[in-house]
């Protein structure tokens, strides 16, 4: 059993997730996500350097306001809204794809 978070498949304790109490499930899932986030945060922190900072975009409100004034393309980007999946797409996923995620060969086609 896995949870997909930030495009990564994180392993879960199947027995605990199926038979544990709500609190045990919550704590287990939280622990798995915390472990993942701690490793990602460490990776990001290691990458920071004065040289790297020069290429980072400034996301402060003031800097964004200046960029929006200078570039109408930013306004178009800000108005972009992601396409939500339809009910039929969701049902198709639940009916066909979701049960196959425990199939190792099927899983590997998407996550390796």
How would you describe this protein?
It is a single chain. The chain contains 7 helices and 2 strands, in the order E-E-H-H-H-H-H-H-H. With 112 residues, it is mostly helical. The chain has one domain. Strands 1-2 form a two-stranded antiparallel sheet. Helix 4 crosses helix 5. The longest helix is centred in the first third of the chain and has 26 residues, at 22-47.
Topology:
Elements: E1 2-5, E2 8-11, H1 14-19, H2 22-47, H3 50-53, H4 61-70, H5 72-79, H6 87-97, H7 104-111
Antiparallel strand pairs: 1-2
Strand fraction band?
5-15%
Oligomeric grouping of the chains: single chain
What is the global morphology? extended
H/E series? EEHHHHHHH
What attributes characterize this protein structure?
extended, mainly alpha, single chain, 112 residues
